[in-house]
Amino acid sequence: MTATLAGLRIVVSAGPTYEDIDPVRFLGNRSSGRMGFAVAAAAARRGADVVLVAGPVHLETPPGVQRVDVRSAAQMHAAVFAALPADAYIGAAAVADYTPRAVAADKLKKRGDTLVVECVRTADILADLGAHALRPRRLVGFAAETGDLAGYARDKLVRKRVDFIAANRVGQPGSGFESEDNALTVYWPDGECSLGPAAKTLLAGQLLDLVFAN
Ligand code: PMT
Predict the structure, then answer these.
(1) Digit-coded pLDDT (tens) for 45-66
(2) With contact defined as beta carbons under 8 Å apart, do 175 and 182 qualify?
(3) Which pTM was predicted?
(4) CB 106 within 8 A of CB 131
(5) Is residue 16 within 8 Å of 94, Cβ to Cβ?
(6) How many CA atoms does the CB half-sphere of 55 hold within 13 Å?
(7) CA distance 126 to 114
(8) Neighbouring-strand partners of residue 52
(9) How far apart are the first and last CA of the chain?
(10) What gap in Å lies between CA 34 and CA 40, rounded to an integer?
(11) Distances in Å between the alpha carbon of 64 and those of 5, 36, 121, 159, 199?
(12) Can you tell me which atom of ligand 1 is nearest the CA of 29?
């Protein structure tokens, strides 16, 4: 039976972040936002008060969801923390790990055969939440991996101090970025569970069942 989430406040992040290089160029990734939007929609259908922090995507806002649009990793970090306190955070966004050290004021001109853009690490939203006084009781991260799902996911579980990591394989058709479908292996400290392959809309509900099981 589907558990009600009425009375719970859930913050979900979705989509990519864009890190500007100059006024016309950015570093980005192929996240469509589908996975995170599906989680937000499923949580709202179950009665939760949902804040969806969305990177640049072309998706309709799910009914009953409060949407905050952002562009960069720094803006996503600020918007997620502005939405606290919350009972849960589900981080499906593909947040950039690096951002250019400076944004050029004018369009970069062609000079020479190579271009070096110096980047610096972005703040890690999930890890910062894991260490914060207002840490949501249920903290869920995703892991997008091309191999060794279990190893990387379990490392993130511990390092980012989260309760669940939903790992998906990327770099192949039918799962991960852009696709309508996905397959998740969800890890928690003393267990794991495989979901799918199935539509992201279906997996979203199954993930919520796991996370809010008790
Ligand atoms: O959007 P779709 O096209 O539907 O694709 C879905 C998806 C593949 C993007 C999604 O299922 C997914 O895997 N999202 C996480 C992608 C990712 O960035 O994974 P990661 O292993 O780099 O990051 C691990 C976790 O840390 C993620 O929860 C991420 O949101 C979080 N993170 C990462 C960097 C950062 N600076 N802050 C973060 O919070």
Answers:
(1) 999 999 999 999 999 999 999 9
(2) yes
(3) 0.97
(4) no
(5) yes
(6) 28
(7) 34
(8) 12, 67
(9) 13
(10) 10
(11) 13, 15, 34, 34, 21
(12) 9
Q: What is the 3-state secondary structure (H, E, C) of 159-192?
A: HCCCCEEEEEECCCCCCCCCCCEEEEEEEECCEE
Six-digit token string for 94: 């593909």
What are φ and ψ of residue 181, in 5° steps? -110, 165
Residue 11, CA distances (Å) to 66, 125, 153, 171 in order: 10, 12, 21, 27
**93: CA distance to ligand 1 center in Å?**
5
Enter the tokens of residue 28.
């980005």
Q: Is the omega angle on the peptide bond into residue 85 within 30 degrees of 0, that is, cis?
A: yes
Q: Cβ(31) to ligand 1 under 6 A?
A: yes
Contact 210, 164 (CB under 8 A): yes
Residues serving a catalytic function are 29
Q: For 130, phi and psi rounded to 5 degrees?
A: -60, -25
**Is 130 exposed, middle or buried, given 0-12, 13-18 or 19+ CB atoms closer than 10 A?**
buried
Rg over alpha carbons for the chain, rounded to the nearest Å, is 17
Write the burial class of residue 1 (CB in 10 Å: 0-12 exposed, 13-18 middle, 19+ buried): exposed
User: Which residue's C-alpha comes closest to atom 31 of ligand 1?
Assistant: 126
pLDDT one-digit tens code per residue, 72-126: 999 999 999 999 999 999 999 999 999 999 999 999 999 899 999 999 999 999 9
